[in-house]
Amino acid sequence: MLIALDANNNDYAEIKNRANTVSGISGDFRFDAFSTRLKDLNETNESIESILSLAANKPPRLWSDNDIDIALIEIASWAKKFKRIEVLSSIKNRKPTREAFAFIFDDREIGTVQAEYDIKSSDTKVVEYISQKILSEIHDKDYSKNILLAALAKVSIAIVNDKDD
């Protein structure tokens, strides 16, 4: 679940902050219950069981193996929705805790390459650092803007095709 939420090394304070941003704006009562439970998430069995129980729609004493599988799939779905709502939270005058990006490239030889991705606010410093390194490397070169953008697109294609994140 923490991996699906893109959480930093069991940083429960970050999860709580992100859950505060998302809670109560989806219009989906079960999802809102999930985001509310994330506010109190910790390493205890009770904390994990409360989320699994919500996802399975059953108390733990009635669980079967199948219910746990269903719960895990539901939690994965909620985690995806959680990240999407983080990006859209500004519609409720909340500061978004994620940034979303899309990349589309069309080429006669390789066809269309598309990628949608998002990052947590806590990752923006790393993104800014990498961006500045790239810019400093290409800034004083005597290439047109179109050449530089095309080169960055080719690099992006290589990253999209090579990395599984």
- Share of residues in strands: 5-15%
Number of domains: 2
Major sheet attributes = 2 strands, antiparallel
Shape: elongated
Mean pLDDT: 86
**What order do the SSEs take from the amino end to the carboxyl end, as H and E?**
HHHHEEHH
Protein structure class: alpha+beta
What is Rg?
20 Å
Poorly predicted ranges: none
State the share of residues found in helices, binned by percent. 55-70%
Number of strands: 2
Termini separation (Å)? Answer: 15 Å
Count of helix runs: 6
Strand neighbour order, sheet with most strands: 1-2
Describe this structure in words.
The chain has 165 residues and is an alpha+beta fold. Helix 1 packs antiparallel against helix 2 and helix 3 (45-56) packs across helix 4 (65-88). The chain has helices at 12-22, 29-39, 45-56, 65-88, 124-138, 145-162, and strands at 98-107, 111-120. It has 6 helices and 2 strands. It has a two-stranded antiparallel ribbon. The chain has 2 domains: 12-93, no CATH class; 99-162, no CATH class. The model has no long low-confidence stretch (mean pLDDT 86).
